[in-house]
């Protein structure tokens, strides 16, 4: 008979492995973020690769502790030091995502990894400051040009909508983060992993692949479509690709009819690695995104410096104006400016103060109806139970973050937690010290001395992690809060964070006889009980973390969610209940949040909250009704966090039309996809349109102008319904003209697609 038992006391976690982020620690304890990591090494790749944790994060921890030599960066590059700081901002984020060794410079040699940590940031030869040759013509763009960066999955580098007139690319650089490092030109020693392509290389391959373009050959050369490597990208093998759809909406142009504009709007792209490497909970998304964003900015500044090496520039600031589109997000985090991407943007812009700042366009998120958000106040001595349902057949781990806010200093952290399994096994209602964990193990048979559970005597199936986070986003050590003697300690806002992690409820294992030796977590309702053991009211927030499948066309993960008896999913007509109703103009929308515990308010994307960021909601283009899945901000202020989206763009043409039309995976094809990701892409187009039409605008002013335009449009809109700011921000903007003038060529018969 199987038995479960929680450890009796909180214990330090991550001590043996040096891993101090709950997500990575739990995944490593229960078998890895992916079936790739649980598979025999021979199955990793036909090339014999294996997975490792290379490069930056662990080395950064050593550097921070003074255990490693840290020479000056090459070329006296201040951004290299900024990258080091960015990647070591939070003590809870000091591990590099696992990557196939075929993607990684230096394989598994720690000395080589450390060297690349020091040297990441050097440039290709033609962009180095001391280069005596002329800048390639493909890199010679006007000083008033705007660079649009797109960080996504499955971006086709040879697509006609990315070209200049004459079959030349508008793409200045393209980092394929999951590409194999071995190519005909040798390894790019200045990259930590993957492969970077530049305009000249892309143009040469476009010419080599003929007219019309042999896309199969081109995509395989650029490794944007790779069926040979287990971790290769396959999104372009489908009818529609998320990344190509985003790029077309964000900056796709017709090279014949919009050639002047195409010359002024150039592109930089980063193709994320395979979803399996990003992680089911998107735990590693931020690192890949920060790498991609940082690299784009590094190259853009280098192009400007080479382009203007011997010229006097008559502008107040150097550099090209940039807008970067990142149509991804996550649901759980601190939701403040200490978020890794937000902090990265702030630090990058501060470090390059003589250059134009960079702005970021993000989606509001599609989490509004997922029942993954709980937000309430807890008076002194009060207790609340939250029911968390984990479905059967779920092949991914599930995580809930519990945050408590207090401005009373470290000694007043008073939130206690208890977790009860569907089988009734309960942890003690207690408060964990910072950097400690309480674990649930399963045991298959009784030991002679009874059920004294130790890690080596059972399998881990759940764990509660406890961290104390300060106002700068740093995780405090187990004893640090009690021993530090800062004058402002009690004036600083500290927050408690608990992360409840539960193992998969289904794991396939190829054991003889079809049985599995791997224990899984029980499906059903898990109860998270929280109690305020202090006298001061606490604001408590729980969020089910993002949970995605490893492949865009499979669903091995089943999304967990909160339940509450007062939460209404459907109205009396059977329609989904949104955050607000949709009354006639002139009336105030009424909140439909029926539960004071599980709520739609507060579901806004948790990534990248900063003054240089636009967060974009979605609505129907025909009648302006906000999309029910589009996430919502807060109706009243709470902490220093975003309360509402910046604006709203269409994420669906109409009630009878699925999504918005843009490029499919192949040149000349089109597809309709929906979601706030595509609303954000339209906002990106709107932002660079402002910058192109206003040569003197600083990019952050374009975000303000976007919001002003939304307010103006809302005043004169034809839409008859009224909106609420937490749902739709400053107002609803229509399709941008370029997004509707697609001018497709019908290649369906040649391509054999629909």
Please provide a written account of the structure.
Strand 6 and strand 7 form a beta hairpin. The longest helix is centred in the middle third of the chain and has 23 residues. It contains 18 helices and 26 strands. 22% of the residues lie in helices and 20% in strands. The protein is of the alpha+beta class and 754 residues long. The chain folds into three domains: 220 residues, Jelly Rolls, CATH 2.60.120; 78 residues, no CATH class; 361 residues, Peptidase S8/S53 domain (Rossmann fold, 3-Layer(aba) Sandwich), CATH 3.40.50.200. The N and C termini lie far apart (54 Å). Helix 4 runs antiparallel to helix 11, helix 4 packs antiparallel against helix 12 and helix 11 packs parallel to helix 12. Strands 1, 2, 13, 15, 17, 18, 19 and 21 form an eight-stranded antiparallel beta sheet that branches. An eight-stranded mixed beta sheet has the order 9-8-10-5-11-12-23-24, sandwiched between helices. It has a four-stranded antiparallel beta sheet with strand order 16-20-14-22, with no helix packed on it.
């Amino acid at each position: 008979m199987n038995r479960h038992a929680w450890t009796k006391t909180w214990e330090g976690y991550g001590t043996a492995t040096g891993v101090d982020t709950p997500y990575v620690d739990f995944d490593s304890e229960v078998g890895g973020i992916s079936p790739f990591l649980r598979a025999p090494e021979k199955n990793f790749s036909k090339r014999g690769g294996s997975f490792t944790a290379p490069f930056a994060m662990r080395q950064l921890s050593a550097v921070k502790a003074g255990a490693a030599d840290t020479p000056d960066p090459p070329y006296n590059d201040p951004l290299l030091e900024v990258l080091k700081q960015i990647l070591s901002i939070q003590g809870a984020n000091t591990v590099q995502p696992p990557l196939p060794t075929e993607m990684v410079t230096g394989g598994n040699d720690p000395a080589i990894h450390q060297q690349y940590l020091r040297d990441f940031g050097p440039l290709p030869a033609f962009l180095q400051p001391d280069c005596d040759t002329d800048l390639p013509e493909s890199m010679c763009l006007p000083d008033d040009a705007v660079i649009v960066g797109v960080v996504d999955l499955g971006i086709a580098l040879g697509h006609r909508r990315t070209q200049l007139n004459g079959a030349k690319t508008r793409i200045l650089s393209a980092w394929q983060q999951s590409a194999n490092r071995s190519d005909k030109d040798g390894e790019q020693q200045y990259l930590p992993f993957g492969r970077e392509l530049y305009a000249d290389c892309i143009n040469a391959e476009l010419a080599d692949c003929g007219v019309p373009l042999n896309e199969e050959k081109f995509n395989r050369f650029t490794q944007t479509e790779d069926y040979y490597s287990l971790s290769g990208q396959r999104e372009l093998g489908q009818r529609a690709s998320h990344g190509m759809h985003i790029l077309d909406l964000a900056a796709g142009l017709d090279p014949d009819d919009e050639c002047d504009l195409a010359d002024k709007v150039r592109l930089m792209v980063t193709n994320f690695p395979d979803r399996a490497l990003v992680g089911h909970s998107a735990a590693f998304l931020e690192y890949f995104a920060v790498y991609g964003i940082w690299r784009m900015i590094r190259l853009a500044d280098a192009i400007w410096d080479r382009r203007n090496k011997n010229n006097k520039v008559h502008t107040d600031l150097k550099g090209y104006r940039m807008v970067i589109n990142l149509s991804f997000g996550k649901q759980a985090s601190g939701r403040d400016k200490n978020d890794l991407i937000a902090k990265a943007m702030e630090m990058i812009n501060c470090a390059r103060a003589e250059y134009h700042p960079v702005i970021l366009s993000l989606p509001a998120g599609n989490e509004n109806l997922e029942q993954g958000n709980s937000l309430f106040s807890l008076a002194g001595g009060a207790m609340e139970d939250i029911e968390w349902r984990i479905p059967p057949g779920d092949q991914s781990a599930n995580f809930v973050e519990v945050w408590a806010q207090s401005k009373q200093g470290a000694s007043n952290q008073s939130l206690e937690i208890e977790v009860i399994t569907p089988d009734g096994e309960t942890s003690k209602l207690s408060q964990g010290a910072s950097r400690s964990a309480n674990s649930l193990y399963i045991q298959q048979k009784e030991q002679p001395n009874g059920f004294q559970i130790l890690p080596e005597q059972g399998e881990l199936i759940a764990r509660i992690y406890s961290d104390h986070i300060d106002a700068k986003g740093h995780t405090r050590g187990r004893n640090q809060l009690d021993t530090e003697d800062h004058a402002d300690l009690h004036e600083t806002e500290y927050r408690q964070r608990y992360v409840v992690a539960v193992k998969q409820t289904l794991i396939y294992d190829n054991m003889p006889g079809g049985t599995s030796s791997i224990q899984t977590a029980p499906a059903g309702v898990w109860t998270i009980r929280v109690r305020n053991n202090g006298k001061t009211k606490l604001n408590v927030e729980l969020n089910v973390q993002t949970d995605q499948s490893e492949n865009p066309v499979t669903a091995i993960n089943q999304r967990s969610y909160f339940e509450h008896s007062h939460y209404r999913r459907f109205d009396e007509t059977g329609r989904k209940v949104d955050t607000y109703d949709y009354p006639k103009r002139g009336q105030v929308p009424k909140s439909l949040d029926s539960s004071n515990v599980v709520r739609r308010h507060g579901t806004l994307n948790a990534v990248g909250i900063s003054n240089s960021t636009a967060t974009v909601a979605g609505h129907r283009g025909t009648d302006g009704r906000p999309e029910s899945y589009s996430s919502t901000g807060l109706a009243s202020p709470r902490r220093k966090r975003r309360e509402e989206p910046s604006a709203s763009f269409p994420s669906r043409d109409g009630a009878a039309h699925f999504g918005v039309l843009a490029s499919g995976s192949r040149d000349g094809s089109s597809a309709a996809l929906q979601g706030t990701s595509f609303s954000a892409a339209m906002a990106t187009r709107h932002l660079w349109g402002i910058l192109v039409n206003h040569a003197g605008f600083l990019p952050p002013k374009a975000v303000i102008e976007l919001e002003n335009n939304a307010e103006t449009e809302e005043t004169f809109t034809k839409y008859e319904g009224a909106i609420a700011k937490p749902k739709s921000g400053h107002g609803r903007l229509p399709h941008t003209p370029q997004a509707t003038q697609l001018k497709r060529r019908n290649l369906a018969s040649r391509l054999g697609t629909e």
